[in-house]
Amino acid sequence: MAKEGPTSGAGQGRQGAGALSERVRQDIERVEDVRREAGRRPDPAKRPLTQHLASELFGYAYKRLRAKMRTGEIAGLVKQKNSMVPLVLTDEDQDGLDRNPAYRDELAVRTIAEAWTRFYKRAVLGGQWNPHELPDGNRAPAALETYFFGMCLLQFPRTYMTWRAEQEDKFLAHTKGLTAEELEQALGYRSEQATEMVTELCEQVLGMVTTAKPRTRSVMTMAIEGYSQAEIAEHLGITVPMVEGILYRFRQSVRSKVWEGRLRLPRDLQTLVLRQKRRAAA
């Protein structure tokens, strides 16, 4: 089971201070000053040392969390911490973190806010910070910033799970039960033109939309309804490149089914696909 934080007191770190760097010894002094300030000033809004420490730790963790989300390293770092809550990122999840800075910003701020609450209560006021020990139990002298970033990594899976559920609820609000007739119209068919093959194709494609993940489903629903990529991005709070990527991957899924013989295209659509292939090869 993962440790949520060190259990030995900051005073023990002072006993071994001779083996610590000057930076870590200064951190020990800062924590003790902040703890004394809390005892002297009951009102949290009137604790300048605490506020200054919070600001410094926020700046340090914010840059690193955003960078690790962007590169995809966040999952590996969380795994190293042996977090009790596993972090599972699908390709679609990572694509969202990669392409949307707003996602990374919100997740970083929320993660740090939760981590700070626990850090201040346990490590500072509770005296649990030991500079010899990182939050995952590895014995190594660590500066306060490193310790706090470790707590952020332990917090991140919980924050991400909550945030992802909220995102899915938001996406689902932009989906509805589409009909084959609506897709037929989106493909350029009038009701009297739609053959049995066209209707069968549309029903199968709609089945793919209905079973897709909420973000893909919402994008495809709005695209079928005639919204532009820019309008879809604005409504869903995502970027245009994300919309483009979702549409591209869905089209590729449809093409794969066609090539495998699991979807049959009407003759006029087959002609359109061939023209597109020729243009792409030119």
Radius of gyration, taken over Cα atoms and rounded to an integer in Å: 26 Å
> Which term fits the overall shape?
elongated
Q: Biggest sheet: strands, sense, closure?
A: none
Distance between the termini: 58 Å
> Uncertain regions: pLDDT < 50 for 5+ in a row?
1-18
- Output the structural class: mainly alpha
- Please indicate the percent range of residues in DSSP E strands (runs of 2 or more): under 5%
Helix-strand topology string: HHHHHHHHHHHHH
Average residue pLDDT: 80
* Helical fraction: 55-70%
Task: Report the total helices.
Answer: 13
Q: How many strands?
A: 0
What is the count of structural domains? 2
Can you characterise this structure?
The chain is an all-alpha fold and 282 residues long. The protein folds into two domains: 10-172, no CATH class; 180-281, Winged helix-like DNA-binding domain superfamily/Winged helix DNA-binding domain (Arc Repressor Mutant, subunit A, Orthogonal Bundle), CATH 1.10.10.10. It has helices spanning 10-15, 22-40, 48-71, 74-80, 91-99, 101-125, 144-172, 180-186, 196-210, 214-224, 229-236, 240-259, 267-281. Helix 3 (48-71) crosses helix 6. The radius of gyration is 26 Å and the shape is elongated.
Please write out the topology.
Elements: H1 10-15, H2 22-40, H3 48-71, H4 74-80, H5 91-99, H6 101-125, H7 144-172, H8 180-186, H9 196-210, H10 214-224, H11 229-236, H12 240-259, H13 267-281
